[in-house]
Amino acid sequence: MNPIEATSSTTVRILAVGDLVLDQPDIARWFEPTRDLIRSAHLAIGQIEVPHSTSTEVATLDVPAPPADPANLVAAAEVGFAVGTLAGNHVYDCGPQGISDTIATATGAGMTVTGAGAHLAAARKPAIVERLGRSIGVVSYNCVGPRESWATSAKAGAAYVRVITHYELDTANPGGPPSVYTFADRTSLASFVADVKDLAATVQIPIVALHKGIGHVPVDVADYEIEVAHAAIDAGAHAVIGHHAHILRGIEMYRGRPIFHGLGNFVTVTNALATSQADSPERQAWARRRRRLFGFEPDPAMPVYPFHPESRNTMIAVLDADDDGLRAGFIPCWIDDDARPVPHGDDDRGISVTAYIARISREAGFDTTFTWQDGIVRVGERST
User: Fold this and answer.
1) Could you give the CA distance from residue 289 to residue 272 in angstroms, rounded to a whole number?
2) How buried is 8 (Cβ within 10 angstroms: 0-12 exposed, 13-18 middle, 19+ buried)?
3) Which residues, 6+ apart, have CB-to-CB distance to 203 below 8 Å?
4) What is the average pLDDT score of the chain?
5) DSSP state, 88?
6) What value does the mean pLDDT take over residues 196-202?
7) Which pLDDT value is given to residue 284?
8) What φ, ψ does residue 135 adopt, rounded to 5°?
9) Which DSSP string do the residues of 30-82 spell out, in sequence order?
10) pTM reported for the whole predicted model
């Protein structure tokens, strides 16, 4: 059964996916296994990870992502993505032109975007759409830096929450591994909370997208991620969707509302992180360093998918809203040998991906329940 068939005529179905890195020719073919599913939703949300521009400017001191073909963003809109979240660590990699080109291309293709703009006020502006008579709003915030990506009153960039990292040596071993503590800057968090409260007062279904997490590391959810996500729910968000780490994170239920701490990869195809094809010393150095930091080497049989092997487990978040409230769940997906996300029901692969998500949720300390229903894995809180 197509999961969309299980919804009633008054239920708004929202689908959300993680990172979209659309950096290969003929990008539409990577969407083939999920095209019908995405198009069948009332609203599909995706994280636009890199600029879509012809600009050659490099405006970051971090590892720069090459801009992707603007036509590939049009292809994502044609698949059915109607809201694009932009706040992220790579959005300013090509400077102001990269941001303006990306926004112009997305809006020209019919998408509504949020999270980046010509200045901070524009970046904080929510994407608001209406489906079946219900208003849906999305705000998008970058929690991972770098500072060059942040918008100001006079500079293009992303909306952001500033996160502080503190390293504490807890043992009598100078130079040894420290404990790491992370937390949101108070002023920055207050600004974020005010935006979420405004959104919740404006629309019926407020959703918060956060670019957050420790890249390429299984299971771990940093302290600040819990803090900022909980603040969003406390401020009125009905759901929080996370991305950035390029690997799944667990699902938490907080005050009856879902927090997808990391939706993982969706269509993420690029040559930029392959050691042999990286076109700058910075990207070449990062490709070599990645092995030492994260303990994995990309599968050489998948040259355009240079990510952790566990990241082939992924999902599509499902948010069903009706008069009784919001029900959350996900459709398990597997990144196949051609680097395409493929949706699964309760077949062997779908059960395996679901077991992986349940395990990483449990290991992260989340007491979430997982129940199959009409081809969707519904998430809930364990009764006490």
Assistant:
1) 14
2) exposed
3) 126, 128, 135, 136, 137
4) 94
5) S
6) 98
7) 73
8) -85, 135
9) GGTTTHHHHHHSSEEEEEE-S-BS-------SS-PPPPBPHHHHHHHHHHT--
10) 0.95
58-96 pLDDT, tens digit per residue, is 888 777 788 999 999 999 999 999 999 999 999 999 999
pLDDT of residue 324: 93
| Tokens at 219, concatenated | 């299971």
Report CA 179 to chain centroid distance, whole Å: 27
User: Does 274 have pLDDT greater than 70?
Assistant: no
Closest among 316, 312, 302 to 24, alpha carbons compared = 302
Encoding tokens for residue 127? 């994407």
Round to whole Å and give the CA distance between 4 and 13. 8
- As a whole number of angstroms, the distance between CA 129 and CA 138 comes to 9
Q: 31 — alpha (psi -120 to 50), left (phi > 0) or beta?
A: alpha
- Cβ neighbour number for residue 346 with a 10 Å cutoff: 13
Residue 326 CB neighbour total at 10 angstroms = 17
Q: How distant, in Å, are the alpha carbons of 72, 230, 261, 304, 359 from that of 364? A: 35, 15, 10, 30, 9
CA distance 114 to 18: 15
Q: How many whole angstroms separate alpha carbon 259 and alpha carbon 222?
A: 14
Query: Which pLDDT band, with edges at 50, 70 and 90, does 272 fall under?
Result: confident
Tens-digit pLDDT profile for residues 204-231? 999 999 999 999 999 999 999 999 999 9
Q: Identify whether the C-beta of residue 159 lies closer than 8 Å to the C-beta of residue 88.
A: no
Tell me, what amino acid is at 88? Answer: G
